[in-house]
Request: fold
Amino acid sequence: MNLTPSQWAALLPLLYPVIGGCLVALMSLDKDQATTKWIRAAMYGTALLAVGATFWYLTDLWTTGSQPTFFQLHMDRLAQFTGIFVVVAAALTILQGWDHFHQEGWVKGETLALLLFSVSGMILFAATTHFVALFLGLELFSIPLYALVGTVRARSESAEGGMKYFLTGAVASSCFLMGGVLIYGLSGTLDLAVAAPVLVAKGLGTDPLVLVGAALLLLGFLFKVSAVPFHQWTPDAYEASPHPIAGFMSVATKGVAFIALLRIFPGSLAPLGAVGVKMQAVMAVLAVATLVLGNLTALVQTNVKRMLAYSSISHAGYLMLGFVAGTPAAFNGVLFYLVIYLAMNMGAFGLLTAFGLVGEKTTFDDLRGLGWKRPAMGVSAAIIMLSLAGIPPMGGFYGKYMIFRELVATGHVGMAILGVLASLVSAYYYLRFLVALFLQSPGAEAERLASDRPAVHAPLAGASVLVCAAIVMAGGFLQAFLANGFARRALADGLGLLR
Amino acid sequence: MTWLNSHPLTFLVFAPTLIGFLIMALPHSLGRLSRMLGFMGALAVFVLSLAWLLGHGSTGATILVERAPWFTLVGLPVDYHLAVDGLNLWLVLLTTFLVPLTMLGTWNSLKDRIGTFAALFLLLETGMLGALMAQDLFFFYLFWEAMLIPMYFMIGVWGGDERRYAANKFFLYTLSGSLLWLVALLYLANKAGGFNPILMGQAATALPFGVQCWLFISFAVAFAIKVPLFPLHTWLPDAHVQAPTAGSVILAGVLLKLGGYGFLRFAIPIFPAAAMHYAKPLALLSVIAIVYGALVAMVQRDIKKLVAYSSVSHMGFVMLGLASFTVIGTQGAMLQMLNHGISTGALFLLVGMVYDRAHTRMIADFGGVAVKMPVFTAFFLIVTLSSIGLPLTNGFVGEFWILNGAFLSGFGWGRLYASLATSGVLLGAVYMLWMFKRVFWGPENKDPDSGTHHLHSDLNAREVAVLLPLVVLILWMGIHPRTFVAVSETPVVNLLREANAPPVRTFVLKPAVHQAPAAHEAGHEGHAAEPAAHEVHR
Reply:
């Protein structure tokens, strides 16, 4: 097989994680994997190496620019952006996973292997407009995640959450498939970027079947970003899954689904004017529902993981507002928001590991007074939570700022007002996290239990949280670099917007 | 040093943050060292601010300015633009003055995590100074919001029993105003192509008047929450009462001022027409705040809560002065902001001093304190009189000018509202003196559970050193207020001229018809529009 360098460039970001995943899977065949420290270290090391190699390769590609399309793979800057995004999330997940699975007493190599397969699928999903490749990517990243959610087999809730996620996910995937089939059937091409002009040429641009097909595709994406009303799986799946996996799902799944949505809908189906307009209307309605429901439900949660799940639903709402505005600058804002969101949510779930909350003990009460015991984690928590609430000068503010500004500029002032009200509501439940950490002292019984338990030792999770907090702060001060140098170039190269 | 010469304001704003981070990096066990470090740092910032900002004459021109493009996001440029001019000079100095003074005044009030407290205090100073100096609205917004974070933790961690409720209420209340304000800001920035207030003002005048009114309302609500103007004041008593002494002093001393300052710096210059349109409702709410705050203060049993409600009343005067749209009223508002910072700050410090000794703030727990703490009583009396507005103290000048301005203003409601507001001065004397009588005079409260019983020592040298500068300022501002308002005169006159404020009414003792046209001409110099108001009300 003779491939040119640019063809390798399209394939290698997908191959590195897969090779790493296979190696880890082989290592995990050893039955002593859970107890023998060096096997564990080798597994985690291999996984990190695979992720690191992908990262290094992608940043290298980034400096050279977009690659020519090979085999339906568009390894352009948008795909590279996605790759870097996913790989960073995966690296943070692996670091947090070392500590978390150790705390849970459930060390299995297959979690890492599945994670790496998922990474590969995500990069594929965001790097193509060909429907078969798209669907392949979707399944390649979803199926490992179904398994990962139910990975802690010792806990029945875990299996329940995994099953729930799998069943709903399977329905969403089949809807997605049906949507693609409809468009394929009418246009005769599987490449969605080609399908749109063909449909317009055939005079089928506003055909009801095309609209249904587009709507079903949209449903598939919205399920993955956990927008209302396709959000029901989110809290249960997050609660069931190990903390780092929940973080990875909340960040990478959502991010990749939004980027692929960007590539397919405004990017490829743009010639179908009616689809674009109708999609914007649907997005507007669902964004409102997502913001309202996500935020209000998050208010009443007592479990931190469920709160973070609803918070991630509401963040999907803010990101959808970017699609409602629908301008290139708004998409720039969406990508910037995703970068900060990666750091915020990986950090938030990492905090649970860093504070040593295991199993079901993830309520607000379990966090009481921990901010003072672990000052570095406490300060990071403050930065991350305030950023999630959108308080300047943290990076989260700028993401919202960019999206709201485009909403106002395109005349959606009402939506912008709704958005700020939603973030006002959200401030309350993020503050609750800080209230528990700093403003409340632990109850007497918690103190007694804490003195019985060994001290929490989570250096890698702690380090990953610090990295996340640093990225969040950097988002507040290097906002122009991140938004213009990184997100904007991805858009310019990938979709030809904002050149 | 060359960097310092060209960036003095950057240094003043961010030096406290640097020291704050340094303190945060120190271990908990070095709390006492951290406190000392924080105090020395704040003191150094105060000395430097005096050295760099004073002595530039009273021309009204900008004293120091730093401006550079910062970043452009989604097509809107944001400037790194700090400036000190006549409008904010004294507020900046008040801030840098109150921070070290408060640290010294509450030296032993807190027992745990004193290092972290000092660090948060310094971060708060950065927020306040930045908000006061920022001239770009986006930059201002950043500081305005960032300021909430340290204050939230100061109230929430070191506050009283209801501290969590009070801290959340403070945070969310303020955030609600400023988030809606952000939408208005984005709307206007979209029209103006940036966050420069001058460009925004030009863009605003081009908008339909109805839109201008909505935008002004969203600006006004954000600032009015901070002031706080009735009926948006309900967070204040909770925050003040629950906050530790240092938090209360800074809250009253500086944070509330930012509301009034925001009106003067941004809301009125950007929307002069809408501001004039809403002068009457603003003035009405101010009058209600004055009277209502005073009446509620009267029935309080907790001294700190009494002072908190007196803040509502005093800040109502500030808003009345601004709403009068006269030079003397606005200047009075400027002075009243300083007065309130000094007097109410001093009152909170004094209440904190007595609380540290007696561990109660209930008026009923005291009585005859004058016998036990004569020096303390003397200081408390001076500050009380200044708060009431006795001539020769600062309170008198500010309130007199404001009432004068409201009375003379060209608006039809001026005289009535000024008369109503005057009752607030009277009520102020009632609640302050009545509280003073119950706490300090009378026979000594011998009850072993009472507060008086636990007062074992009069003020020590540290506490006297804290209160003396405040008393000196109270008298100085009362005797020679021009020191503090000279620099703001030119900007205020310009502001009112650009706002087309109705000319002040002139009163002639004898009804002499032939003098009227002359007065008419004189009154109209520089005021092109609105002759009707003048004609009608003379």
Summary: Chain A has one domain: 5-495. DSSP finds 20 helices and no strands in chain A. Chain A touches chain B at residues 329, 332-333, 372, 375, 379, 382, 386, 391-393, 397-398, 401-402, 404-406, 408-409, 413, 416-417, 420-421, 423-424, 427-428, 431, 435, 438-440, 479-480, 483-484 (CB under 8 Å). The CA atoms of residues 491 and 497 of chain A lie 6 Å apart.
